[in-house]
Amino acid sequence: MLKKTLLSTIVVSTLLSAGSLFTPLPQDSKYDKAEAALGKQLYMDTRLSGDGTVACVNCHELSMGSGVDGLPTSTGIRGQKGPVNAPTVYNARFNFVQFWDGRAASLQDQAAGPVENPLEMGAKFPEVIKRLKEDENYVKLFQELYHDDITKEHITHAIAEFEKALVTPNSKFDQFLRGDQNALNDMEKKGFKLFNDKGCAACHNGINLGSNLYQKAGIFEKFPETDNFTGRYALTKDEKDKYFVKVPTLRNIARTAPYFHHGKTPDLKTAVMQMGYYQLGITITLEEADAIVAFLKTLNGEVPEIAK
Ligand code: HEC
Ligand code: HEC
């Protein structure tokens, strides 16, 4: 019962401040245009992988506005399967840390990870840099923008600058937050009310409706697929971090199936009902889940020009 009390405390304090719980995405995301253009080239470039077959975009597509690969877990070089579902790159600039376990503090730190991860791009920076230096276009661009040779630091900096442009503004929900009461229909408003009343907003709030705190996966029941996935514990070895993960963003969530770190939940309605069961210790009815899903669909934003 301690858990229930703790959670209702979160829920109550959440509701008290419900007015300021959510923030719309900026309509004009700030980033350096020239650096982002270089970052986009690198993001699309398979030369950043060990065998020249995989680029960032393979696992984080852009044009459909999802920022994911739509797979339960990603496929890296030589068809290797990774252990977890790929989170979206869209709006990642607003995450308080990167990765499920928060092991990267910034987008730039994060970008070095996949390049050298043996299951993902399986390269080493010295070889990547050597390859890029064979391309006069890159040599020229790095000189122009960084007044320097091609380095790991500049590569990851440019990629991070590109990711700063990956923001999806003007969702129906953002229009609603900015004061347009008609931006949501009755069903969507009902879903938003349920989202607050049931306690979802205790963990999914802020500008990204998530990604601003760590929480335990499986507060009321043991979360599926956590035998080999212990969240932050793997990083800190601290018992109290067991199964704690960065709460995922819900922006564009209707575009990023399948769900959860395991990627084994195929549809949003099931995911919503599972959240009720594992995180809140309640049963969400089919009808309630339909309304919450209708609300979650209003979080789909516009795909920025640079990503088309
Ligand atoms: C083989 C597939 C794959 C490739 C290639 C890949 N990623 Fe990822 N990406 C993932 C997976 C899986 C995760 C989650 C890993 C984890 O949390 O342990 C992830 C996490 C991320 C995150 C963190 C998002 C969040 O909410 O925590 C960002 C940002 C990101 N990737 C950007 C990139 C960039 C930039 C590149 C290219 C340099 C790249 N990825 C290449 C699969 C991939
Ligand atoms: C106590 C915190 C908490 C509460 C309350 C909570 N969630 Fe979550 N939510 C999480 C965490 C943690 C995850 C990631 C779990 C994992 O995959 O290991 C998550 C994941 C999700 C996902 C999947 C995201 C993805 O990218 O795969 C959806 C959808 C979701 N939550 C919706 C909801 C809804 C709707 C509610 C209310 C019914 C809710 N959540 C209540 C913490 C919470």
Describe the fold and architecture.
About 40% of the residues lie in helices and about 0% in strands. By secondary structure, the chain is mainly α. The protein has helices at about 1-15, 35-45, 55-60, 105-115, 125-135, 135-145, 150-165, 170-175, 185-195, 235, 270-280, 285-295, and strands at about 215, 245. The protein has two domains: about 1-25 and about 170-305, Cytochrome c-like domain (Cytochrome Bc1 Complex, Chain D, domain 2), CATH 1.10.760.10; about 35-165, Cytochrome c-like domain (Cytochrome Bc1 Complex, Chain D, domain 2), CATH 1.10.760. Strands 1-2 form a two-stranded antiparallel sheet. The protein starts with a helix and ends in an 11-residue tail after the last helix.
Uncertain residue ranges = none
SS content category: mainly alpha
The total number of structural domains is 2
Q: What general outline do the C-alpha atoms trace?
A: globular
Q: Could you tell me the mean pLDDT?
A: 95
Proportion of β residues?
under 5%
CATH architecture of the largest domain: Orthogonal Bundle
